[in-house]
Amino acid sequence: MKPTIVLEAHDLAIAAALIGLDGLISLVFGLGLHRQLAVAAIRMVLQLLLIGVILTRVFALASPPVTLLVVLVMVAIGGREVAVRPEQRLVNWGNYQVGLASVAFATGITSILALTTALRPDPWYEARYAIPLAGIVLGNVLNAASLALDALLASVVREKAAIEAQLCLGATARQAMGGLLRAAMRRGLLPVINSMSASGIVTLPGIMTGQILAGIDPMEAVKYQILLMFLLSGGAGLSAVAVVFLAARRLTDARHRLRLDRLTETGSARGA
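Request: output the structure for the sequence above.
Response:
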Protein backbone atom coordinates (compact mmCIF):
# COMPACT_ATOMS: atom_id res chain seq x y z
CA MET A 1 0.00 0.00 0.00
CA LYS A 2 1.35 3.41 -0.92
CA PRO A 3 1.71 5.98 1.86
CA THR A 4 -1.14 8.45 2.30
CA ILE A 5 -0.67 11.73 0.46
CA VAL A 6 -0.55 14.54 3.01
CA LEU A 7 -2.11 17.79 1.86
CA GLU A 8 -0.38 21.01 2.86
CA ALA A 9 -1.89 24.49 3.13
CA HIS A 10 -0.52 25.55 -0.25
CA ASP A 11 -2.13 22.50 -1.90
CA LEU A 12 -5.53 23.62 -0.63
CA ALA A 13 -4.78 27.20 -1.68
CA ILE A 14 -4.17 26.08 -5.25
CA ALA A 15 -7.49 24.20 -5.28
CA ALA A 16 -9.20 27.28 -3.80
CA ALA A 17 -8.21 29.19 -6.93
CA LEU A 18 -11.09 27.39 -8.65
CA ILE A 19 -13.48 29.23 -6.33
CA GLY A 20 -11.85 32.42 -7.55
CA LEU A 21 -12.57 31.26 -11.09
CA ASP A 22 -16.24 30.82 -10.21
CA GLY A 23 -16.25 34.32 -8.75
CA LEU A 24 -14.70 35.70 -11.93
CA ILE A 25 -17.38 33.97 -14.02
CA SER A 26 -20.03 35.55 -11.81
CA LEU A 27 -18.53 39.02 -12.30
CA VAL A 28 -18.02 38.69 -16.05
CA PHE A 29 -21.53 37.42 -16.76
CA GLY A 30 -23.28 39.50 -14.10
CA LEU A 31 -24.58 36.50 -12.14
CA GLY A 32 -24.36 38.26 -8.79
CA LEU A 33 -23.09 35.14 -7.06
CA HIS A 34 -19.50 36.15 -6.22
CA ARG A 35 -20.29 37.26 -2.66
CA GLN A 36 -22.37 34.13 -2.00
CA LEU A 37 -19.55 31.96 -3.35
CA ALA A 38 -17.03 33.63 -1.06
CA VAL A 39 -19.26 33.35 2.00
CA ALA A 40 -20.14 29.72 1.25
CA ALA A 41 -16.48 28.78 0.73
CA ILE A 42 -15.40 30.47 3.97
CA ARG A 43 -18.22 28.84 5.92
CA MET A 44 -17.39 25.44 4.45
CA VAL A 45 -13.71 25.71 5.43
CA LEU A 46 -14.47 26.92 8.96
CA GLN A 47 -17.15 24.28 9.53
CA LEU A 48 -14.94 21.45 8.31
CA LEU A 49 -11.97 22.64 10.36
CA LEU A 50 -14.22 22.82 13.42
CA ILE A 51 -15.60 19.33 12.90
CA GLY A 52 -12.04 18.08 12.36
CA VAL A 53 -10.98 19.44 15.74
CA ILE A 54 -14.08 18.03 17.44
CA LEU A 55 -13.71 14.57 15.92
CA THR A 56 -10.01 14.42 16.78
CA ARG A 57 -10.85 15.01 20.44
CA VAL A 58 -13.85 12.66 20.44
CA PHE A 59 -11.78 9.87 18.88
CA ALA A 60 -9.06 10.42 21.47
CA LEU A 61 -11.56 10.24 24.35
CA ALA A 62 -13.03 6.92 23.13
CA SER A 63 -16.01 7.50 25.42
CA PRO A 64 -19.32 5.78 24.53
CA PRO A 65 -21.46 8.55 26.16
CA VAL A 66 -19.59 11.23 24.19
CA THR A 67 -19.96 9.22 20.98
CA LEU A 68 -23.68 8.83 21.60
CA LEU A 69 -24.01 12.55 22.33
CA VAL A 70 -22.35 13.48 19.05
CA VAL A 71 -24.59 11.11 17.09
CA LEU A 72 -27.71 12.42 18.85
CA VAL A 73 -26.76 16.01 18.00
CA MET A 74 -26.28 14.99 14.37
CA VAL A 75 -29.66 13.24 14.34
CA ALA A 76 -31.36 16.27 15.92
CA ILE A 77 -29.92 18.57 13.26
CA GLY A 78 -30.96 16.09 10.57
CA GLY A 79 -34.51 15.99 11.96
CA ARG A 80 -34.66 19.77 11.81
CA GLU A 81 -33.55 19.75 8.17
CA VAL A 82 -36.35 17.33 7.32
CA ALA A 83 -38.85 19.56 9.13
CA VAL A 84 -37.99 22.91 7.54
CA ARG A 85 -37.65 21.88 3.89
CA PRO A 86 -41.33 21.11 3.08
CA GLU A 87 -43.55 24.09 2.31
CA GLN A 88 -46.41 22.72 4.40
CA ARG A 89 -46.22 22.61 8.20
CA LEU A 90 -47.98 20.33 10.65
CA VAL A 91 -49.23 22.08 13.79
CA ASN A 92 -47.63 21.68 17.20
CA TRP A 93 -44.16 21.18 15.74
CA GLY A 94 -45.45 18.15 13.89
CA ASN A 95 -42.85 18.39 11.12
CA TYR A 96 -40.07 18.32 13.70
CA GLN A 97 -41.53 15.35 15.55
CA VAL A 98 -42.16 13.36 12.37
CA GLY A 99 -38.78 14.29 10.88
CA LEU A 100 -36.82 13.51 14.03
CA ALA A 101 -38.55 10.17 14.58
CA SER A 102 -38.01 9.00 11.00
CA VAL A 103 -34.38 10.13 10.88
CA ALA A 104 -33.53 8.57 14.24
CA PHE A 105 -35.24 5.30 13.32
CA ALA A 106 -33.62 4.90 9.90
CA THR A 107 -30.16 6.09 10.94
CA GLY A 108 -30.14 3.95 14.07
CA ILE A 109 -31.27 0.74 12.40
CA THR A 110 -28.95 1.11 9.40
CA SER A 111 -25.84 2.17 11.34
CA ILE A 112 -26.16 -0.46 14.08
CA LEU A 113 -26.74 -3.18 11.46
CA ALA A 114 -23.56 -2.20 9.59
CA LEU A 115 -21.45 -1.84 12.73
CA THR A 116 -22.50 -5.17 14.22
CA THR A 117 -22.47 -7.30 11.05
CA ALA A 118 -20.33 -6.00 8.17
CA LEU A 119 -17.74 -3.71 9.78
CA ARG A 120 -17.54 -5.28 13.26
CA PRO A 121 -15.10 -2.91 14.98
CA ASP A 122 -14.14 -3.79 18.55
CA PRO A 123 -16.07 -2.39 20.30
CA TRP A 124 -18.81 -1.99 17.69
CA TYR A 125 -19.65 1.52 18.96
CA GLU A 126 -16.09 2.87 18.58
CA ALA A 127 -16.31 6.56 17.72
CA ARG A 128 -13.90 6.35 14.76
CA TYR A 129 -16.38 4.06 13.00
CA ALA A 130 -19.76 4.94 14.48
CA ILE A 131 -19.69 8.71 13.93
CA PRO A 132 -18.53 8.81 10.28
CA LEU A 133 -20.90 5.98 9.36
CA ALA A 134 -23.84 7.68 11.05
CA GLY A 135 -22.94 10.91 9.26
CA ILE A 136 -22.91 9.28 5.82
CA VAL A 137 -26.19 7.47 6.42
CA LEU A 138 -27.80 10.54 7.96
CA GLY A 139 -27.14 12.72 4.93
CA ASN A 140 -28.98 10.30 2.67
CA VAL A 141 -31.74 9.56 5.16
CA LEU A 142 -32.69 13.19 5.69
CA ASN A 143 -32.77 13.82 1.96
CA ALA A 144 -35.17 10.93 1.37
CA ALA A 145 -37.34 11.87 4.35
CA SER A 146 -37.58 15.55 3.42
CA LEU A 147 -38.51 14.79 -0.20
CA ALA A 148 -41.15 12.25 0.86
CA LEU A 149 -42.63 14.53 3.52
CA ASP A 150 -42.80 17.50 1.17
CA ALA A 151 -44.44 15.38 -1.53
CA LEU A 152 -47.05 13.95 0.84
CA LEU A 153 -48.08 17.20 2.52
CA ALA A 154 -48.32 19.07 -0.77
CA SER A 155 -50.30 16.31 -2.51
CA VAL A 156 -52.77 15.92 0.37
CA VAL A 157 -53.61 19.62 0.20
CA ARG A 158 -53.83 19.51 -3.58
CA GLU A 159 -55.98 16.36 -3.67
CA LYS A 160 -58.23 17.25 -0.74
CA ALA A 161 -61.49 16.96 -2.70
CA ALA A 162 -60.59 13.57 -4.22
CA ILE A 163 -59.54 12.14 -0.84
CA GLU A 164 -62.72 13.31 0.90
CA ALA A 165 -64.87 11.95 -1.94
CA GLN A 166 -63.35 8.48 -1.45
CA LEU A 167 -63.83 8.73 2.31
CA CYS A 168 -67.51 9.60 1.78
CA LEU A 169 -67.89 6.48 -0.35
CA GLY A 170 -66.66 4.30 2.52
CA ALA A 171 -62.92 4.05 1.86
CA THR A 172 -60.58 4.03 4.83
CA ALA A 173 -58.04 6.80 5.22
CA ARG A 174 -55.28 4.40 4.15
CA GLN A 175 -57.20 3.46 1.01
CA ALA A 176 -58.09 7.04 0.13
CA MET A 177 -54.51 8.23 0.53
CA GLY A 178 -52.81 5.08 -0.74
CA GLY A 179 -51.77 6.51 -4.09
CA LEU A 180 -50.37 9.64 -2.47
CA LEU A 181 -48.43 7.60 0.09
CA ARG A 182 -46.85 5.50 -2.64
CA ALA A 183 -46.01 8.56 -4.74
CA ALA A 184 -44.36 10.27 -1.75
CA MET A 185 -42.26 7.20 -0.91
CA ARG A 186 -41.28 6.87 -4.55
CA ARG A 187 -40.07 10.47 -4.62
CA GLY A 188 -37.98 9.88 -1.52
CA LEU A 189 -36.32 6.79 -3.02
CA LEU A 190 -35.61 8.09 -6.53
CA PRO A 191 -32.38 10.00 -5.68
CA VAL A 192 -30.65 6.96 -4.18
CA ILE A 193 -31.80 4.79 -7.10
CA ASN A 194 -30.33 7.33 -9.53
CA SER A 195 -27.13 7.43 -7.49
CA MET A 196 -26.75 3.64 -7.55
CA SER A 197 -27.48 3.51 -11.27
CA ALA A 198 -24.72 6.02 -12.07
CA SER A 199 -22.09 4.73 -9.64
CA GLY A 200 -19.00 3.26 -11.28
CA ILE A 201 -19.94 4.10 -14.87
CA VAL A 202 -20.98 7.74 -14.90
CA THR A 203 -19.34 8.77 -11.63
CA LEU A 204 -16.81 7.53 -9.08
CA PRO A 205 -18.45 8.05 -5.66
CA GLY A 206 -16.70 10.44 -3.29
CA ILE A 207 -16.02 7.89 -0.54
CA MET A 208 -14.46 5.44 -2.97
CA THR A 209 -12.36 8.17 -4.60
CA GLY A 210 -11.13 9.36 -1.20
CA GLN A 211 -10.10 5.87 -0.19
CA ILE A 212 -8.20 5.31 -3.45
CA LEU A 213 -6.42 8.66 -3.04
CA ALA A 214 -5.54 7.60 0.51
CA GLY A 215 -3.76 4.53 -0.85
CA ILE A 216 -6.34 1.78 -0.38
CA ASP A 217 -6.47 -0.95 -3.01
CA PRO A 218 -9.18 -0.09 -5.59
CA MET A 219 -10.99 -3.40 -5.12
CA GLU A 220 -11.18 -2.87 -1.36
CA ALA A 221 -12.48 0.66 -1.96
CA VAL A 222 -15.10 -0.78 -4.31
CA LYS A 223 -16.25 -3.25 -1.65
CA TYR A 224 -16.69 -0.47 0.90
CA GLN A 225 -18.58 1.63 -1.64
CA ILE A 226 -20.94 -1.23 -2.46
CA LEU A 227 -21.59 -1.72 1.25
CA LEU A 228 -22.28 1.99 1.70
CA MET A 229 -24.64 2.16 -1.27
CA PHE A 230 -26.65 -0.76 0.12
CA LEU A 231 -26.76 0.95 3.52
CA LEU A 232 -27.81 4.27 2.01
CA SER A 233 -30.57 2.69 -0.04
CA GLY A 234 -31.89 0.81 2.98
CA GLY A 235 -31.76 3.90 5.16
CA ALA A 236 -33.55 5.95 2.52
CA GLY A 237 -36.30 3.36 2.27
CA LEU A 238 -36.79 3.19 6.03
CA SER A 239 -36.89 6.98 6.42
CA ALA A 240 -39.27 7.50 3.50
CA VAL A 241 -41.72 4.88 4.80
CA ALA A 242 -41.51 6.13 8.38
CA VAL A 243 -42.00 9.82 7.59
CA VAL A 244 -44.87 9.17 5.18
CA PHE A 245 -46.88 6.99 7.55
CA LEU A 246 -46.20 9.18 10.58
CA ALA A 247 -47.32 12.28 8.69
CA ALA A 248 -50.38 10.50 7.25
CA ARG A 249 -51.39 9.43 10.73
CA ARG A 250 -51.35 13.07 11.85
CA LEU A 251 -53.47 14.12 8.88
CA THR A 252 -56.26 11.65 9.67
CA ASP A 253 -58.10 10.55 12.79
CA ALA A 254 -59.67 7.41 14.24
CA ARG A 255 -62.90 8.12 12.35
CA HIS A 256 -61.04 8.14 9.00
CA ARG A 257 -61.50 11.85 8.44
CA LEU A 258 -59.02 14.06 6.62
CA ARG A 259 -57.70 16.64 9.09
CA LEU A 260 -56.15 19.49 7.14
CA ASP A 261 -56.84 21.67 10.17
CA ARG A 262 -53.69 20.04 11.54
CA LEU A 263 -51.68 21.99 8.99
CA THR A 264 -50.76 25.55 9.89
CA GLU A 265 -52.67 28.36 8.20
CA THR A 266 -49.51 29.57 6.50
CA GLY A 267 -48.74 26.13 5.15
CA SER A 268 -52.28 25.58 3.95
CA ALA A 269 -52.33 28.95 2.25
CA ARG A 270 -49.13 28.21 0.36
CA GLY A 271 -50.44 24.84 -0.73
CA ALA A 272 -53.87 26.12 -1.78
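The radius of gyration is 22 Å.
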